[in-house]
Amino acid sequence: MLNQFVDIGGVSTRCLIAGDERAPAVLLLHGVTLTADIWRHNIDTLGRDFRVVAVDMLGHGFTRPAARQRADIPGKIDHLLRLADTFRFDHFAVSGSSYGALIAANLYLRAPERISRLVLNGSGSCFSSEADLAVFLTRTYGNYEPTLTSSSPEMWRERLCGTVFDPASIPQELPPLLSLCYAQPWIAACWEQTISTMRDGQAFRPYRILERLEAIGAETLVVWGREDRGAAYDSAAAAVKRMPRARLVAFERCGHLPMLEHPQPYNELVREFLSGDAPARVA
Fold first, then answer.
1. 206 vs 282, higher pLDDT
2. What is the value of pTM for the model shown?
3. Integer distance in angstroms from the first to the last C-alpha of the chain?
4. CB contact set of 56 (below 8 Å; sequence gap of 6+)
5. What is the mean pLDDT of residues 205-215?
6. Closest by alpha carbon to 243, among 147, 119, 60?
7. Phi and psi of 8, rounded to 5°?
8. Is-contact 122 97, C-beta < 8 A?
9. Dihedral angle sign, alpha carbons of residues 136, 122, 258, 41
10. pLDDT digits (tens, 9 = 90+) for 239-283
């Protein structure tokens, strides 16, 4: 796995990269407060069969927007399509976690001819109702902003422990990295813009997926943790029934980050799906 900064339309963009350049392409997208590092247990394994790029999305991690560039949902999608062009990904799969799944689904709706397959992981922002999402955002992120720019590794470990089923699954290097990430003076404003957009029903409505599930025509794998406190399993089960070509797989003893909490079975599942021979089991 290579850790690189790649120039994407004048934006220095942090990417974790693995796999043969000639292999089928896979783009990995993290959640709202996290970074590409949630995929560290997956990149090299998937890189045996695919060209894998996990990216710090625009306004997240270590990818700082250019002056006067908005890190809103359209801005993120534009940035990701330019990234795909830079890597010469004419046709590629996308796997997104939580908010990253929302971006992945919107990316498909913007450019369906370019997206081969979708993997949507534990995403309340995709499948929750407008009212339920507003309650969740207020409860979960209401006390983040005052501490973001002065956060410690201990604070991040405590928050991550509330996200996963087993705290032992949290990589030791992740809390210090997040603390460093949010020490950057520009990032809190980008974070606040992301959260405030989702809290604003009118501003967020054009990017909601729940009302457009029937339009997602790509083969889609929905992966869920049974103990995910932030994304209700029932909402995923109901959503998959409305999607033309989707299947749902749930992991037991798993919270919000199945790719990090159960990396070996997750990698096997996703590799089979992206290879075109996904297993028949559906939760």
1. 206
2. 0.94
3. 32
4. 13, 14, 15, 30, 35, 36, 62, 63
5. 94
6. 119
7. -120, 95
8. yes
9. negative
10. 999 999 999 999 999 999 999 999 999 999 999 999 985 443 334
Helices marked H in 66-207 — which ranges? 73-86, 99-110, 124-127, 130-141, 153-161, 174-181, 187-199, 201-204
Spatial CB neighbours of 11, under 8 Å, sequence gap ≥ 6: 58, 63, 64, 65, 66, 69, 79
Contact in structure between 249 and 282 (CB atoms under 8 Å): yes
Pick from 187, 158, 147, 181: nearest CA to 36: 181
CB of 239 within 8 A of CB of 222? yes
Beta bridge partners of 18: 52
Percent of the chain with pLDDT over 70: 94
Residue 161 tokens, joined: 């422990």
Per the document, the length of the chain is 283
77-117 pLDDT per residue, tens: 999 999 999 999 999 999 999 999 999 999 999 999 999 99
CB 63 within 8 Å of CB 130: no
- State how far the Cα of 253 lies from the Cα of 99, in Å rounded to an integer: 22
CA-CA distance, 60 to 86, in Å (whole number)?
19
Dump pLDDT digits (tens) for 181-204. Answer: 999 999 989 998 888 888 888 888
